[in-house]
Amino acid sequence: MIDRTRVRSMRTVDPSTDSPSTLDVDSRLGAPRGDTDVRPGDALRCPAVGPVVQAEAMTRPGSSSSPDSARPDSARPDAAGRLAGTVALVTGASSGIGEATALALAGHGAAVSLVARRKDRLDDLAARITADGGRALVLEADITDEPQARAAVEQTVAELGRLDTLVNNAGVMLLGPMEQAPVEEWQRMVQINVLGLMYCTHAALPHLLRAAEDSPRRVADLVNVSSVAGRIARPGSGAYNATKFGVGAFSEGLRQEVTRRHVRVSLIEPGAVETELAGHNRPEVQETLRARFADMERLQSEDVSDAVAYVVTRPRHVAINEVLIRPTEQEG
Predict the structure, then answer these.
(1) Which residue ranges does the chain devote to CATH 3.40.50.720?
(2) How distant is the alpha carbon of residue 78 from its chain centre?
(3) Cα–Cα distance measured from residue 145 to residue 189, given in angstroms and rounded to the nearest whole number
């Protein structure tokens, strides 16, 4: 049992978010202050020294249920290894959301295939994953070229043995009024945001369907990283909106085709995220973006990768089809 008289402050993992929250413990009453409840099996942490005690598992008198049976999957003791034995492919893995997602999935036990054009960054990321005991495969590829996209998928399966999760993250955001926009920017966005995503999906689909049939999880996941721009059109971003609306339509159509075969199709729609994505714009557009978000605390890549990890670690009967994530201060 916990000696509450010797503990003043503890941290526990919130099973709804997998994130830590602090509990103040009243040494006189032996109970946390406020509404927070320490439940059997919750991992309690001291901010200074990490894990310090595991709450003793107990059931109410007359109950035959184990304490884990009433807890969300993400809060169960084996949650960190939920993807053990599976393989994930992440496009655009060299930076930002893709990099954070690869780390998150590897942290859950998946072997990760890292796909992007900047091999030096992929090598650094793979080294970090393997240093933590994970497994990573580096594949330099331009997914806007259909043969390269297909080869990346096939090499992943050949070297890692299977494919259970595809995260289509690669993308580009080139903004500005349409009247003055270089048409080449539109072509680039369509090639990466739409066609590249479709090429990878088409190549991966047979493997995902097979994984849903023969893996211990008996489910596979296809996650498309879109944007709030796939829901709301704005002046100056019409072409980008068109690509992201297209991703949403493609995702929903595919979802309806494969969901009964236990391939889950999910759409992640972030708002403003602090990544290098905006840096690909023309200087005058970058200036406009800086002014727009100057006083806003934007999302971090890890905020989005947390959502991806949550989606792909749900039980087989749960499909999270859309996740819209905005900074608290973002209005539209």
Answers:
(1) 85-325
(2) 19
(3) 14
Helix (H, G, I), strand (E, B) or coil at 89: strand
Give catalytic residue positions: 240
Per-residue pLDDT of the chain (332 residues; tens, 9 = 90+): 444 333 333 343 344 444 444 333 333 334 333 444 434 444 434 333 333 333 333 333 333 344 444 444 443 434 568 999 999 999 999 999 999 999 999 999 999 999 999 999 999 999 999 999 999 999 999 999 999 999 999 999 999 999 999 999 999 988 888 898 999 999 999 999 999 999 999 999 999 999 999 878 999 999 999 999 999 999 988 999 999 999 999 999 999 999 999 999 999 999 989 876 766 767 777 787 777 767 789 899 999 999 999 999 999 999 999 999 999 988 87
- Among the listed residues 105, 118, 313, 119, the one whose alpha carbon sits nearest the alpha carbon of residue 220: 313
Predicted TM-score (pTM) of this structure: 0.75
Question: Thinking of the domain 85-325, which architecture would CATH place it in?
Answer: 3-Layer(aba) Sandwich (3.40)
- Whether residue 136 contacts residue 114, with contact meaning beta carbons closer than 8 Å, is answered with yes
Q: Could you tell me the sign of the dihedral formed by the alpha carbons of 60, 65, 69, 70, in that order?
A: negative
Look at residues 79, 80, 77, 52 and name the one whose alpha carbon lies nearest to residue 67.
77
Q: How many helices (H) and strands (E) does the chain have?
A: 8, 12
